[in-house]
Structure formats: structure tokens, C-alpha cells
Amino acid sequence: MYYKVSRDPIHSEIFLYPLEMLAIDTRPVQRLRQLSQLVGAEWVYPGASHTRFAHSLGVMHIAGLYAERLFQEHSRRRIVRLAGLLHDVGHGPFSHQFDDVVYKRMGLQDGHDEHRERILLELMPKEMFKAYERLSDLKKREAIRKDLKQTMGVEDVTIESLTNLMHEVNNVFKGEEMGSVEYNVVQGPLGADRLDFLLRDAYHSGTTHFGVGAVDRIIRNAYLKTKDSKTILCYHVKVLDQIYTSLFGRFMMYKNVYFHKTSRAADLMIQEILSLVYKPLNLSERVNDLERFLDLTDQALLTEVKLEAKKIFERHKVDSEGEIESSDLSDDEYNLIEAYKILRRLETRDLWKLIVEIAFTAEGADPYVLSVGIVADTLQKIRLRLEKLIDSKDVPDHDRKIMRRLLDDFEVVFKSDTPYKLSLVHPQEFVNSNVFLYDPQSDTVISLEDYVKNYPAYRMLASNLVQIVRIYVTEDVRELLTKYNVVPSAKLQLTTRW
Fold first, then answer.
1. What pLDDT score was predicted for residue 371?
2. Which pLDDT value is given to residue 493?
């Protein structure tokens, strides 16, 4: 079959087949070149400037390796590879930060995954048809028709046939609820998405020493089996050590890269920018208008914040370093200026500063729920301590003045962060995803949870969910807080059982 090759630092060569090339040459996919893969981590790891476009090609490649191992049908292989390629097209600027602010406000609880469906079904067929119409290479046009016939049983490249193709791709993601094989190949516990982002992010961050396991060996030992009359994805029990190595690599990447304290400081500042400009820049309307959504990229959004702020400065006849009385500004203008100030701080790496970090685990409870109470309790202790110090005669007037201001602007100065839960190895994740182990000697399918019960060493490696709670300050008052012992101890002893 006709193909091209893309050179890649992670996988060496990634083969591109006709329908994939057609999808790649569309605006929704090319837009991924302008979305950062790691966002805040780039402020800590300078090499981590890679994009979601490169990652998407890598996911397609690994999904293809899985498909060659598991599926005989050309159609299943092509659909799974396309799902890998298109899995991130719903991301907004700054990816997960956009999820946490904009999509959440819009009521899209599944964020970019939920928005992806509209792009696949409403936009991609038209974009792929336009790309096909632009082609003057008759050989490539013929290759696309042949690939479409092998995949969908039709040869005519029309918006209708491409819509049907995208429905099949979207069905891969809809398989999450039932734990379908195709979904697990792309986005399951050991799916192509996870395996590529761990390899790629570790490479660009300079943290390859964490390791992500032997990907080729894991894929080569994947099987399709039947359980409860359903086809499921299984892995040979002999690669359990490689599976644990991959999961440990994931844990270390989350702990040291994705949830690095300074990475998260930059992430939180970007979230604040998005929150401030949500209404002034009409982000919800632009997300819903898919054509306008394609123009929402990382740098485009930041450039727009600068341009809008400049207009406000010009209207009020001050330069960008000048101060404008807030009473002279509308709410939208005020928010844009505040967003601009945070952006200027990012440009000089003047980031929010960590003052409290608490990591804990809880048995029999979701630690995120507990973290909400821990944050509230810690902030209340800080507030009460400041209030007490203000009334103390031992505090100089200069320090008392700062403390009073901190209390007046408490919600502005003190920011909490409770990022996603971490787990080292959590067998329930595999059970929930309908992914199992397979023992050829006894020809049995067994859950990871049941298997590790018989092996003490694996039980020791299995962990509860770990939650990180952090509190930052938006201005560097750490010296003052330390001087007066304002911040409570971060030590926490917590065990909760059913």
C-alpha cells in the first residue's frame, strides 16, 4: 500500500497511510502543532517544548503496533490508528488547563474528550474532503480511494463516506464505558496514548532514567480473549514485571514532571489567565463555533490577551507599565488587565511560590474528597494566625501593614492546588477498564487484582491513591510567613477505613 514515512526521535520511523495522510492535512490536526504537550513543565524542563501533534503521530504508531498484533482485518487496524491520531483534536489552548477552567465552566465534564466528538463528526469529514479535493497527485488520490474501500467498503470519497468513517473512529472512544478492546488499545491503562506520552515526555524533559518499561515486549504479549461472552484485552502474565515498570515510570513522571511544584505554579497561573479572560474573550462562544475554535491555540490566545490589554492602555492613555485605577475600568477590562499582568510574570518566570505541600494516602476513601477539607483547614489556620499577629504588640508596624493587606486580599494571595490523584500500581484501574492477565499454561484469564494476591512482592508494590495538596502565594511573602511561623506544619497522619 502507498505510504510515507515521518522521522521521529522516539519511534525512529512512523509510517503514514493514505487515509491518515488525508486526516493529517486538515486544520484540526495541523492545529495540534500549536498546542504544547506539557504546558507548565516547560518552565522547569526547557526541552519539554514538544507539541500534541508529534504526540498524536506517536499514539497512532503504537496503536498500529497493537493493531498488527491483535487484528487481522484491515478496517479495524485503520480505524484504531486513526483514533490514535485524532484522540487529542478536542484540546483547547494549554490542554488540560483549558479543561479545568473553560470546558468545566461550559459544563463539559469530560473536557476535550467530550468536545472531540463534535470535531470528529461535524468538522473532520468536511476538512478531509477539502484536503482530498486539493490533491493534484492522481497516485495519492487513488491510494486514498483504495484505503477507503478496504476500510469502509466504499470507494467514493464523499463527505458522507468520510462522515461514516469518523463515526467508526468515534465509536472507539465510546467504547470506554464497556472497556472495549479498541478503546483500551488507544487509551487504556497500557494504551498507546499513555505509552507514547510517557516515552515522549520523559525524552524531552530529560528524565528518561525513570523508565517506562519495554513497550515492544508488552505489545507482543497482548492477547484477545473471551470473558463473560465479551472480547477483552489481556497481557501474558510473564510481562507483569514490564507492566509494573511502566506503571512505576508513570508514577515518577507525574511526581517529578507533571506535578512538579513549579510546573504546577505555571499551570495555575495559566488557569488564572483563562478564568479571567473567559468572558471578555467570549471563549465559550468560540469553542461552540468549531471554525473559530480552530484559531484557539496557545500563542494565539496569549497574543490576543496582550493586544486587548494594549487597547485598554491606549483608551486610558497610559503605557503598558502604567497603573490604571480599577474604578475607571469595566469588569471585562479589569479582568483583561489582570490576565495581562500574570502573563507578564510568566514571561519573566516570576511564578507563584509554594508555601505548603501535604501528600497523603487514605484507605477506603477517595483522597481528593479529604483534600478539600485539608485545604480549608490549612487556609483557616493561616488566616487565624495572621489575625492574631495583627493584634500583637510585638509585630512592627511595617510587618503589620503587610499582614493586614494579606488578610484583605486573602483569596487573591493564597491559592490552593489539589492536582489529580497519583497511584503507583492500582489493580482496580485494570478491573474498571476491562483489562486482564492471561496465563497460557492454564489457559485462564485472571484480573491483576486477583493475581497479585498470591504474590507478596507485588502486593507490596500495590499502593493506595496518593493525593498532593499544595498552597501557593501569588506574591513572595515567604520570608514574612516564616519569620512569624504563620504556615502550619505540613505533617499529616491520616488513615481512613470503611
1. 87
2. 45
Q: Low-confidence residues of the chain, pLDDT below 50?
A: 492-498
Q: How many beta carbons lie within 10 A of that of residue 133, not counting itself?
A: 9
Q: Where are the beta strands (DSSP E) in 17-151?
A: none
Phi, psi of 280 (to 5 degrees): -60, -35
| Per-residue pLDDT at 95 | 95
The helix or strand, by DSSP H or E, that contains position 5, with its residue range, turns out to be: strand 4-8
What is the pLDDT at residue 193? 98
List alpha helices for 221-260, DSSP H: 240-253
Rounded to whole angstroms, the Cα distance separating 422 from 426 reads 10
H helix intervals, 221-350: 240-253, 261-277, 283-288, 290-293, 298-315, 331-347
For 349, other C-beta atoms within 10 Å of its C-beta total: 11
Q: Which residue, chain included where needed, has cell 459544563?
A: 107
- Determine the Cα–Cα distance for residues 421 and 185; give it in Å rounded to an integer: 23
Q: For residue 10, how many other CB atoms are within 10 A of its CB?
A: 19
Q: What is the pLDDT of residue 325?
A: 76
Tell me how far apart the alpha carbons of residues 346 and 323 are, in angstroms, rounded to a whole number.
19
Cβ within 8 Å of residue 482, ≥6 positions away = none
- pTM, to two decimals: 0.94
Dihedral pair phi/psi, residue 257, rounded to 5°: -120, -65
Q: Which residues pair with 73 in a beta bridge?
A: none
Among 273, 303, 307, 293, smallest CA distance to 32 is for: 293
Would you give the DSSP letter of residue 101?
Answer: I
Q: Write out the three cell numbers for 483.
A: 519569620
Long-range CB pairs of 130-139, under 8 A, 24+ apart, other chains included: 130/26, 131/22, 131/25, 131/26, 132/22, 132/157, 134/25, 139/2
Q: How far apart are CA 84 and CA 62, in angstroms?
A: 8
Strands 444-446 vs 353-361: parallel, antiparallel or unpaired: unpaired
479 phi/psi in degrees, rounded to 5: -65, -45
Rg (CA), the chain: 25
**Average pLDDT, whole number, for the chain?**
93
Contact at 8 Å (CB) between 112 and 103?
yes
Residue 23 confidence (pLDDT) = 98
Residue that has been written with the C-alpha cell 518499561 in this structure: 213
Q: How far apart are CA 60 and CA 52, in angstroms?
A: 12
**71 close to 223: Cβ distance less than 8 angstroms:** no
- Is the distance from CB of 87 to CB of 52 less than 8 angstroms? no
pLDDT digits (tens, 9 = 90+) for 275-332: 999 999 999 999 999 999 999 999 999 999 999 999 999 998 887 777 787 778 999 9
